[in-house]
Amino acid sequence: MAVATLTQSGGHHALRFFLLRTTQFIAVLATTLLGLVAVTFFIGRIVPIDPVIAIVGDRAPAHVYARVRQELGLDLPMIQQFWIYLKKAISGDFGNSVLTTNPVMTDIINVFPATLELATLGTIIGALIGIPLGVLAAVKRGSLIDQFVRVLGLIGYSVPIFWLGLMALLLFYAKLGWVEGPGRLDVTYSYMYTPVTGIVLIDTLMQGQMDAFWNAVSHVMLPACLLGYFSLAYISRMTRSFMLNELAQEYVIAARVKGLSEFRVIWRHALRNASVPLITVIALSYANLLEGSVLTETIFAWPGLGQYITNSLQNADMNAVLGGTLVIGAAFVILNLVSDLLYRLLDPRTR
């Protein structure tokens, strides 16, 4: 009877703990997103770009300018404008784009899969190559392999991505012809499949359009590898740091004394413990690629969210700029909080 009572009490305690953590997570997420909306909105109002002129033109009569300004609510106090914007943003209404005349959310839904495809491939490439390189650099600390990995990461942090992208296009596309050029798919193949998910590689593969699939692979290979390299630089450096810390722990010495093979000690024990903080690193790298692919998409004419925001900014389309910036910021915040939650779930020491 006493055991049953203790078990029931422990179950209630675990449930309360879970509900408390969930409530805290939701509260932090809501507060962070509210701050993101506020910062995005007020920055959009401070920048010296007049959205009214972007709509009516700089030669419109004064009464037309005043009428459009009133319709947009720009004559209201700033706090009231923010409250109206906040209510609409919560429902997914960011207004209409001046450039495309479509609702901004509709445009974002159409272009975001391209950014998601590129960032996902870049993260996969960075993790698959960066983690083994970081492990080898830690195991062979001070060797030529370690120096090579550190220099590789240093170049990834130092070289501007637009310069590296242009050089890659010049070499692999213009000179060698190993890959296709800018764009997501050749016009010849763009009508061979029906967009379903918005991700060309998945849609063409699911529908059996292999010619279109391989053409899409050839187009995405260069920008994905470029983003993968920058992801690799970050992931390999952090993996090396985590592994050096784990290899200095007593359990590694004990495992070696017991006669376990070096392969098992490194890849089964040390890397397993280092993989917990690596989840956060990979998630942050993924978020960085989602928000930092603007220059890559511009260089490779990739029709994603980064290019959409760039074109909108050049045409003073502030509704689209604010909406796109808010979506990318929200994705970054959510990935950051989810990685922190996974870290707590996988590592009991942080609870």
UniProtKB/TrEMBL annotation:
It is a multi-pass membrane protein. The keyword Transmembrane applies. Keywords: Cell membrane, Membrane, Transmembrane, Transmembrane helix, Transport. Residues 112-343 form the ABC transmembrane type-1 domain. The keyword Membrane applies. One of its GO terms (cellular component) is plasma membrane. One of its GO terms (molecular function) is dipeptide transmembrane transporter activity. InterPro entries: BPD_transp_1_N, MetI-like, MetI-like_sf. It is found in: Cell membrane. Its main location: membrane. The chain crosses the membrane at residues 25-47, 118-139, 151-174, 212-235, 270-289, 320-343. Belongs to the binding-protein-dependent transport system permease family. PANTHER family: D,D-DIPEPTIDE TRANSPORT SYSTEM PERMEASE PROTEIN DDPB-RELATED, DIPEPTIDE TRANSPORT SYSTEM PERMEASE PROTEIN DPPB-RELATED. This is ABC transporter permease.
